Amino acid sequence: xxxxxxxxxxxxxxxxxxxxxxxxxxxxxxxxxxxxxxxxxxxxxxxxxxxxxxxxxxxxxxxxxxxxxxxxxxxxxxxxxxxxxxxxxxxxxxxxxxxxxxxxxxxxxxxxxxxxxxxxxxxxxxxxxxxxxxxxxxxxxxxxxxxxxxxxxxxxxxxxxxxxxxxxxxxxxxxxxxxxxxxxxx
Length: 186
Known about the structure:
The protein is mostly helical. Helices cover about 70% and strands about 0% of the residues.
């Protein structure tokens, strides 16, 4: 007879997500996960197989949380390019812990997942979804050609990645300036 889990999986994965977000994939050990998740190594391996399994679930949790808290506002907005600009500001707030910006867990992880095809797929899937959402909002301007919409959506997804990285080292005024100049060019 198998034992019942003494924890709620969603709660421990959220704790793991914050651990990976704060420390990065490579610097996060199974011992750290045990401590932060509040479960033992046996439970980690039984439920998630290994550290990669916890990481993959953490990425999925992050994507769902970002979707609910930030992306859904963009998707539901009818404000065109202004809604994309607002997404950039909303994303900065979402990625902040106390007064410190942490960047994007997905962007931060890109540099650490060389051999993890599942994690790379999760990251690419979200980036493609977000890029397409940007394109849809830009398309509310009926004067833009398909080619221009694609170029601007590509530009914005790259700009967002840059903003994510820059948020870890620049101050709020510099980040705001980056967003304003980005949207002056669209």
